[in-house]
Amino acid sequence: MNLRTALTASAVALAFTGSALAGPAPAQSAPVQREQVGNRISENIPAIPDALREQLNRYQNTRGAGFAGWTREGCLLIETRFAETSQAHRVCEPMGMREQLTFYSEPVAGLAVAPAASTLDGFVFSKDKGGDEFSQLHWFDLATRQTRLLTDGKRTQNGGALFSRDGRQMAYAGTARNGTDRDVYVRDVASGQARMVVSEGGSWSPMDFSPDGKRLLVMKYVSAAESYPGVVDLATGKLELFPVDGGKAAFGGFAFAPDGKSVYFVSDEPVQGQAQEFQTLRFHDPASNRFEVLTRDIPWDVDNFNVAHDGRHLAFVTNEDGISKLHVLALPSHREVKLPALPVGVIGGFDFSPDGKRLALSLNSATSPSDVYVVDLAGAKLARWTRSEVGGLDASTFVAPTLVRYPTFDQVDGAPRSIPAFYYRPAHVPAGRKLPVVISIHGGPESQALPTFNPTAQFLVRELGVAVLVPNVRGSSGYGKSYLALDNADKREDSVKDIGALLDWIARQPELDASRVGVQGGSYGGYMVLASLMHYSDRIRAGVDLVGISDFTTFLTNTESYRRDLRRAEYGDERTPQMKEVFARISPALHPQRIASRLFVAQGKNDPRVPYTEAEQIVKAVRGNGQPVWYLLFDDEGHGFKKKSNADYYGAATVLFWQQNLLGGTE
Questions:
Q1: Where are the transmembrane segments (predicted)?
Q2: pLDDT confidence of residue 565
Q3: Are the beta carbons of 477 and 448 closer than 8 angstroms?
Q4: Helices (H), ranges, 40-129
Q5: Can you tell me whether residue 202 is helix, strand or coil?
Q6: Is the Cβ–Cβ distance between 385 and 373 less than 8 Å?
Q7: Within 13 Å and on the Cβ side, how many CA atoms surround 320?
Q8: Which of 43, 85, 157, 257 has its CA 20 to 30 A from that of 276?
């Protein structure tokens, strides 16, 4: 489980206030050209030319495959899309047929396979409605191919399904008690009865059952820098929190060792009183007080780990400057096991086969969509189990980025702080030609841009000759906890200054055209787009904001209650006078007169994280200042676009926007 993943939410209606338009009298706005087609509402977006749709078609028909688990007979459960949404499939041999198992109009996610020792033969999956993220858990029986609902089916969020070793119990997190707190439940699989085992308030998740099924490791998540681990005695219901060295620390995975007494965990707690920048893999035996930092010599975060079902191996993945490195340790010696060479890329889900002899994983790279591979541990051999489609394109011509670092405004140890960025540069650029640039900013903000396959970036680079820069500005994960904290609360706009420094860097590159720069981003990245336009409209020609925050006060007021405090921990508390003042200063919806660049805003109506009213208010505010805005709203989507037809339209409209506002002359 990745504890850095932001929790989901439900949107609450928001009334737009006139304060966003404070300042000089607005210029006369042009009439809005509105079109409604099915669940799509488009405003001021021109008709998509057929030639552009055809040119994009192959890029939009790329797809990946993600590993989700092993079935008892040794097949792989994977998630992939063959129609409109991602569904569960089964593959039973290397490069074998993908058998589709679920067929829903909504995507399925969170697959958890019943263990081989169980009498069950199937898996749990989650599914919401129209992107509202009120996910319900369902059981899929592989023998009968029947499904049934496991949770209440109401406006509650349920996820993180986890089976005990024998499959008799299933733990999960849910908000059914009060709609605000994420409690931990344990379901008796035979009777179907679920009981609450953690109701302490806050955001809790189940982590691992003890081998005998009598105890459950749990974790309370507060922020990317703060979590609290504990264990529940399932017979008595007693919750015991573990002490946290230093009082506050980040935690990742947490699991019992095969002996059921000692534990493995990922944390950045101090070691022997020394502060730690990165999250390392650790082992602790409370009985003997034996403690080891297993990745002491790796100066990077451990992203995740898994212990084999037979207790003989542990696999973990490190994130080294955005590239994944796989490691396997023999247990209990912790000796490193020799592995075959893996393609360079980013590893997603991974787990051992039921017999512990093989390890399956998802692997993605900048030039290849996600595919599933299996490592034979005894023979140190690698087998590819899926080969995902790339729309008939020549994958050998896909562009891989280079990692660059550019100086920003502040200093570290007397030298300018450097910001990492992935640079996609078109091939075969004629001498003397300056390339237009699109800067793509990740969300989170505690996320990290990784060199993974992005068909839109490949289209921009290969078909339109656009350079793409993907920075990891301060506040990104993966570079240590000090870097992660550099944009917290009243330091929010320091990350925007990192974009200003990137504009300076672009101006110094002889192959890049500093007069033709666009910026795009989603969620928090959408806020970064709007903030960048607010500060650098004289240097950025156009911006695309997808499900972005436009006013932190209205965002925090209207995001769903069960994630509000989690976001306050990152952004600051809008109820305090100090943060109210900060938010009034930095929120783009309150300063529309400073946005002079062309703007495209896209949103899902059911977004539970960033309510659609955040999009509506920035569109209204900027238009009220006399600036034209393209606006796209889907009634059947949430925080991003999960349905292929919707994503395709958004992608085509975005390319058209760049063609008209970045590649051509100024309107």
A1: none
A2: 81
A3: yes
A4: 50-57
A5: coil
A6: yes
A7: 13
A8: 257
**Torsions phi, psi for 502 (to 5 deg):** -65, -40
Q: Which residue do the tokens 């030039």 mark?
A: 367
Any residues with CB less than 8 A from the CB of 37 and at least 6 apart, and which? none
In a domain, 293, yes or no: no
What CA–CA distance (Å, rounded) separates 161 from 316? 21
* pTM (2 d.p.): 0.91
What pLDDT digit, counting tens, does each position of 202-228 carry? 999 999 999 999 999 999 999 889 999
Give a yes or no: residue 511 inside a domain.
yes
Q: What φ, ψ does residue 630 adopt, rounded to 5°?
A: -85, 140
Q: Residue 498 maps to which CATH number? A: 3.40.50.1820
Q: 7: closest CA among 590, 486, 564?
A: 564
Q: What is the DSSP string of 85-104?
A: SEEEEEE-STT---EE----
| pLDDT reported for residue 363 | 96
Which of 110, 71, 89 minimizes the C-alpha distance to 360?
A: 71
- Select from 631, 623, 615, 629 the least CA-distant residue to 667: 629
Within-domain flag for 202: no
**Is there a domain that residue 176 lies in?**
no
Range of the domain at 642: 397-414+423-663
pLDDT in tens, 584-598: 999 999 999 999 999
More confident residue, 286 or 603: 603
pLDDT of residue 665: 43
The two structure tokens encoding residue 27: 């210029």
How confident is the model over 30-76, as pLDDT tens digits? 789 999 999 999 999 999 999 999 999 999 999 999 999 999 999 99
The three-point CA angle 325-329-332 to 5° equals 160
The two structure tokens encoding residue 538: 């004289």
Write out the two tokens for 242: 């573990």
Does a cis peptide bond (omega within 30 degrees of 0) precede residue 332?
A: yes
3-state secondary structure 436-482: EEEEEECCCCCCCCCCCCCHHHHHHHHHCCCEEEEECCCCCCCCCHH
Question: pLDDT digits over 473-500, tens only?
Answer: 999 999 999 999 999 888 999 999 999 9
Tokens of 531: 């903030």
Q: Report the number of distinct structural domains present in the chain.
A: 1
Alpha helices in 130-268 (DSSP H): none
- Cβ atoms 66, 348 nearer than 8 A: yes
